[in-house]
Write a structure and sequence with these properties.
With about 270 residues, this protein is α+β, with helices and mostly antiparallel strands. It folds into 2 domains: about 100 residues; about 160 residues, Heat Shock Protein 90. Helix content is about 50%, strand content about 15%. It has 6 helices and 7 strands. A 5-stranded mixed sheet has the order 2-4-5-7-6, covered by helices on one side. The protein has a two-stranded antiparallel ribbon with strand order 1-3. Strand 6 and strand 7 form a beta hairpin. The protein is globular, with a radius of gyration of 19 Å.
């Protein structure tokens, strides 16, 4: 089982690396003016190419899982369940990358819909619980106020909240005793008005020397048990890109061994 976990930890990095290696090589031969547009188009194209085989792996593992739940032994069942979950996580990552890349190429879509941020956050929490099959023993405390309606992209906001919740949960000391606090509120007045979202956990925390690197692509701190904790080391990179699309900012405060608080702020556009 440990070998399977190590395989998927490496597999995640292998399928993610082509986005950045191929785009960097291609861009070396093009004008800097075209760099951003070309990079986004390549990301979308490569993402679709990778998603096709991953979708097949996910579909077949789902069928095997259903069959083994009736007839298979416990070890085989756990192995297939791990393949199913990891392929699901990789597909989610690719979908997020495609979504962000498309929005960066077509900024008008960023403000196409009026959304209720409070509802988006609550929906993200429910989706998060379902995705990770989290029981009630994991405490998720929400204090979301007031109801704030803005023009934005609800899927992008949901992805930001989901990724931050995932990090808080996956890097907890013990997942069964994880405690995550989600707070949301408006701050400031007039043109300075912002929405502030905070997600705090009681997890393993981050060493001071690593905080400045958490938004780097593929970065995973040495204190993380990669065999026990899934992840590609790219979730926070996508979160920062998404927040940047709304001229927002993100900051991290952490005490190693005690927990981490991530704060996201973005202007409120009515």
């Amino acid at each position: 089982m440990n070998k399977i976990k190590q395989f998927f930890a490496a597999f995640g990095r292998i399928v993610s690396a082509p986005f950045h290696w191929m785009t960097s090589k291609f861009l070396e031969r093009h004008d800097a003016v075209l760099e951003k547009k070309i990079r986004r188009e390549l990301e979308v194209s490569l993402s679709h190419e990778l998603k096709t085989p991953l979708t097949s792996i996910f579909a077949y593992s789902e069928l095997l899982l259903e069959s083994l739940e009736k007839t298979g032994n416990k070890e085989d069942l756990e192995a297939i369940r791990l393949i199913y979950k990891k392929s699901q996580e990789l597909i989610r990552f690719i979908d997020n990358l495609i979504n962000i890349s498309i929005l960066e190429m077509n900024p008008k879509v960023l403000f196409s819909t009026q959304i209720n941020i409070s509802n988006v956050i609550i929906e993200s929490v429910n989706r998060f619980r379902t995705f990770y099959d989290i029981g009630q023993d994991v405490k998720i405390i929400t204090d979301i106020r007031p109801d704030t309606n803005v023009f934005g992209n609800d899927r992008l906001f949901q992805n930001v909240v989901f990724e931050l919740l995932s990090n808080a949960y996956l890097y907890s000391k013990e997942k069964k005793t994880a405690k995550i606090t989600v707070t949301g509120k408006e701050t400031g007045e007039g043109p300075q008005k912002k929405y502030e979202l905070k997600i705090a956990d009681n997890g393993i925390g981050i060493k001071p020397g690593n905080i400045s690197h958490v938004f780097d692509k593929f970065f995973r701190a040495e204190e993380i048990d990669t065999a026990r904790t899934s992840g590609l080391g790219i979730g926070l990179t996508l979160v920062k890109r998404a927040v940047g699309l709304y001229s927002g900012d993100i900051e991290i405060a952490s005490r190693y061994g005690e927990g981490t608080t991530v704060t996201v702020r973005f202007p409120v556009y009515y």
